[in-house]
């Protein structure tokens, strides 16, 4: 069958995105075919389009962007494990998402429980899985700890803040405008700092009685990384998982010495590399959603054909919350 896709023939700006028709055959061994209803839109897609910030597999052009989506299984290939069936609502994490119908390895597919819609899963799976490993595996947050979440009103920030609060943490969030302060407060932050008007290091220390936080969750990168080290208590960890303001450049390792600090630069793919890890992470996320600890929301919807506009608006910081492409 023929289906719509968005792909690139070279790295560059939003203008390199082109809408094409591609052929999709029957699913092969170990594959399922999914008719998508929602395709996730993430800043990682922009990095991939530009040709910067791994880890993206080296692939010959043309490349179909994206890595997450949701929809309904409409065909199953041979040798697929039990538990997946035609008509089932599923989400997945696998490269090549900007396509209306596609074949996907069955081990990258996650069945959706009742109460989690395809649209929500398609828009937020990457962020939800990222929050799961950040809060529960890389640095397991314990009740009574204080955490600092940068970009607390963004798509990742609102999930991290809600979940950290549900785990019993005191959540301090930074944002870049007055309007975003209300969003951060409504999504789990006990304290919100407008970093454009306030010194976020001084305010973080003030909020923690001078002690500092146990962990910093940083999706901003260059502009906030080094000051964030001053927000940490002894034995604290700074986790840089995104670089919206640019890459973190080399720094003096001795900055970590006095308080025995740790720094991490993780990526989701390594935490969900196996089918078992992917399913466990998704199960923990869905449990948190169904239990009311985390609310997943879709803030913006774009037709798949308008992927260029979607990239432009995401790149210009015109969006808040999660965005989704609708085939």
From TrEMBL:
Pfam families: ADH_N (PF08240), ADH_zinc_N (PF00107). Its EC number is 1.6.5.5. Residues 12-325 form the Enoyl reductase (ER) domain. CDD domains: QOR2. GO terms for cellular component: cytosol. InterPro entries: ADH-like_C, ADH-like_N, ER, GroES-like_sf, NAD(P)-bd_dom_sf, QOR-like, Quin_OxRdtase/zeta-crystal_CS. Keywords: NADP, Oxidoreductase. One of its GO terms (molecular function) is mRNA 3'-UTR AU-rich region binding. SUPFAM superfamilies: GroES-like, NAD(P)-binding Rossmann-fold domains. PANTHER family: QUINONE OXIDOREDUCTASE PIG3-RELATED, QUINONE OXIDOREDUCTASE-RELATED. This is NADPH2:quinone reductase. It comes from Variovorax boronicumulans.
């Amino acid at each position: 069958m023929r289906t719509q896709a968005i792909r690139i023939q070279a790295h560059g700006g939003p203008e390199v995105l082109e809408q094409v028709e591609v052929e999709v055959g029957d699913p092969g061994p170990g594959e399922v075919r999914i008719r998508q209803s929602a395709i996730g839109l993430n800043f990682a897609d922009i990095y991939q389009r530009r040709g910067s910030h791994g880890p993206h597999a080296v692939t010959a052009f043309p490349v179909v962007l994206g890595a997450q989506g949701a929809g309904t299984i409409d065909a199953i290939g041979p040798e697929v494990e039990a538990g997946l069936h035609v008509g089932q609502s599923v989400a997945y994490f696998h490269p090549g998402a900007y396509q209306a119908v596609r074949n996907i390895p069955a081990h990258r597919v996650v069945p959706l429980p009742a109460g989690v819609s395809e649209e929500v899963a398609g828009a937020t799976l990457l962020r939800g899985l990222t929050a799961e490993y950040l809060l529960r595996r890389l640095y397991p947050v314990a009740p009574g700890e204080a955490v600092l979440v940068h970009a607390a009103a963004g798509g990742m920030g609102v999930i991290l803040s809600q979940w950290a609060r549900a785990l019993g943490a005191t959540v301090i969030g930074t944002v870049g405008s007055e309007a975003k302060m209300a969003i951060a407060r409504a999504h789990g932050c006990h304290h919100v700092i407008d970093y454009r008007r306030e010194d976020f290091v001084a305010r973080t220390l003030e909020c923690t009685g001078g002690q500092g936080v146990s962990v910093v969750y940083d999706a901003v990168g260059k502009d906030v990384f080094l000051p964030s080290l001053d927000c940490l208590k002894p034995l604290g960890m700074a986790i840089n998982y995104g670089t919206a303001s640019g890459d973190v450049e080399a720094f003096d390792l001795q900055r970590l010495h006095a308080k025995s600090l740790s720094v991490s630069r993780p990526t989701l793919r390594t935490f969900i590399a196996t089918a078992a890890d992917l399913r466990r992470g998704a199960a923990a996320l869905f449990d948190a959603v169904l239990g009311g600890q985390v609310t997943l929301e879709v803030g913006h919807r774009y037709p798949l054909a308008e992927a260029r506009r979607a990239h432009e608006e995401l790149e210009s910081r015109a969006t808040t919350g999660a965005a989704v492409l609708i085939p």
